Amino acid sequence: MTEIAHAERAHALLSASGAHRWLHCPPSATLEATLPDTTSTAAMAGTLAHEIAELKLRKAFVEPITTKKYNAAFKKFKEAPLYEPIMDTNTNVYLEYIQAIVHAFPSPPYVVVERKVDLSAYVPESFGTSDCIIIGGKQLHVIDYKNGKGVPVEAQDNPQMKLYALGALRAYSLLYEIETVHLAIVQPNVWERPSEWSLPAADLLAWGESIKPIALQAFNGEGDYVVGSHCGFCRAKETCRARVESLLSIEPLVPLKPPLIGWGEVAEALRKAEGIVSWYNAIKKLALTEILKGGELPGWKAVEGRGSRAYADLDAAFAHLKANGIDEAVLYDRQPLTPAKLEDVLDKKQYKELLEETGHVIKSSGAPTLAPSDDKRKAISDLVKPQDVFNTPLEA
């Protein structure tokens, strides 16, 4: 049994996608609501990829849709300015993952695509849209597609996914007996395999009850502003007073402290400096936008940056050069694509089969670089000589 739900892509004050922020910093939700909601190119590309994914799931699980109708719809997506061939590859990965789950059931499970779920039993006036829900054999699967390339998103203990699952339980628990909940995030631009996590339905319901007081605080704009990694996608991150003061605060010197800072203090300085650099770049961009709109920033002005050069007519320019004796070979720079760029041109499976598995591409270890202790990469266990580190270009 399948269902397609055309949910409006609206946002609640306490959205499931923002739960990571408002659960850590309750008043951030009402603070964000006072600021304009800007849409980035990456977000618009993500929406397009989601629409392609929805079309493919509809063709696979919802009847009827003819091949002609499917091809016509897909052609429109391919004509969109933000379309990239990799979107076709990535959404195929998403489709194949869902097909594998569905076909693993002894009898056809219930499948719903783009389902708007009511979260108000746990979060005031909240709702969200789950990409795919599958129910069968006392199992609930909640699957989300992520198009992002920069920030890996894990399913384990993910509040957005847990809220979607709570909404699904509320919608379908009267019709289906559900004992176990499986959460999965398919993010092909980051993960080679989907990130998965499971928990008993009873544990999920208990978590839902536990967040009610925090959600009520957030809805009322109450509680303390708390600074942390959750600030990353907050619309107020550049001008939030709590974050700015945290980034720029320096503890006063205390007598009898050693004149040189220790390694523990170095670790703390690195954490703060990382946030300061990203914040400085973001607030500088925000200030420039304000000045260009006609606003004033005491002591600052907008000036013209370094310009660029472009040919008025490339063909005419090169014809003129050749007519004046310039060898054509000087005018062109032919270079092979790097493995990273070629992986984007080919699909990942084809790239691995033709190049990595045949030994035509050799993967070497990157130079040692610092990373927070919760980074998913394995720590370097073997001792490395300092001279080896400083004689190798470090990651930016």
- Quote the beta fraction: 5-15%
Mean pLDDT: 85
Overall spatial form = globular
Helix and strand composition category: alpha/beta
Distance between the termini: 50 Å
Largest sheet: 6 strands, mixed
Please give the count of helices. Answer: 15
Note poorly predicted spans. 2-9, 392-396
What structural keywords apply?
43% helix, disordered C terminus, 396 residues, single chain, 11% strand, alpha/beta, six-stranded mixed beta sheet, disordered N terminus
Describe the structure.
The chain is α/β, with parallel strands linked by helices and 396 residues long. Among the domains are: 218 residues, no CATH class; 26 residues, no CATH class. The chain contains 15 helices and 6 strands. It has a 6-stranded mixed β-sheet. The longest helix has 30 residues. The chain is globular.
In short:
This protein is of the alpha/beta class. The protein has helices at residues 19-24, 28-32, 41-61, 67-78, 85-104, 159-172, 201-210, 212-219, 241-248, 263-292, 314-323, 328-331, 339-345, 348-356, 386-390; strands spanning 2-4, 110-118, 127-136, 139-145, 180-186, 195-200. The chain is globular, with a radius of gyration of 26 Å.
Layout of helices and strands:
Elements: E1 2-4, H1 19-24, H2 28-32, H3 41-61, H4 67-78, H5 85-104, E2 110-118, E3 127-136, E4 139-145, H6 159-172, E5 180-186, E6 195-200, H7 201-210, H8 212-219, H9 241-248, H10 263-292, H11 314-323, H12 328-331, H13 339-345, H14 348-356, H15 386-390
